[in-house]
Amino acid sequence: MYADLRLRKHADFQSVYGRSRKQHARQMAYFFAPREDEGTGPRVGLTVGKVMGKAHDRNRIKRRLRAAIRANAALLTSPVDVILHPRRSVLEVEFEKLKADVADVFRAVQRSASRARS
């Protein structure tokens, strides 16, 4: 399911950064921007830089976030691009709290996208 939701291209990331402002949640910062092509669903991208630690730490952060995204993917229904910037604390936080944080982010994005379309 998450494979269909992935934001992959550098140009798409740059487009989201250019059309949005940084928002904050407990365990991450995030950017989001509505898409013009209404036919497709939402897409989610992750950025985990080298400042987050060694490769095995960064990979673990990404695995945990992907699982949390899969668990909450149904909350996003609007055509929107979302980029998540996790904090290093994602490694230590309980997975249920991480899932709840991702759910809060997705609900906030969905509310904003719904308001923008109406």
From TrEMBL:
Record key words, sorted: Endonuclease, Hydrolase, Nuclease, RNA-binding, tRNA processing
Reaction(s) the record says it catalyses: Endonucleolytic cleavage of RNA, removing 5'-extranucleotides from tRNA precursor
Subunit structure: Consists of a catalytic RNA component (M1 or rnpB) and a protein subunit.
GO terms for cellular component: ribonuclease P complex
Pfam family, one: Ribonuclease_P
EC number of the protein: 3.1.26.5
Coiled-coil regions, chain positions: none
Name used for this protein in its record: Ribonuclease P protein component
A molecular function (GO) term: tRNA binding
Domain of life: Bacteria
Biological function: RNaseP catalyzes the removal of the 5'-leader sequence from pre-tRNA to produce the mature 5'-terminus. It can also cleave other RNA substrates such as 4.5S RNA. The protein component plays an auxiliary but essential role in vivo by binding to the 5'-leader sequence and broadening the substrate specificity of the ribozyme.
UniProt-listed InterPro entries: Ribosomal_Su5_D2-typ_SF, Ribsml_uS5_D2-typ_fold_subgr, RNase_P, RNase_P_CS
NCBIfam families: rnpA
Chain ranges passing through the membrane: none
Family that this chain belongs to: Belongs to the RnpA family.
PROSITE patterns referenced in this protein's UniProt entry, alphabetically: RIBONUCLEASE_P
GO biological process annotation, one example: tRNA 5'-leader removal
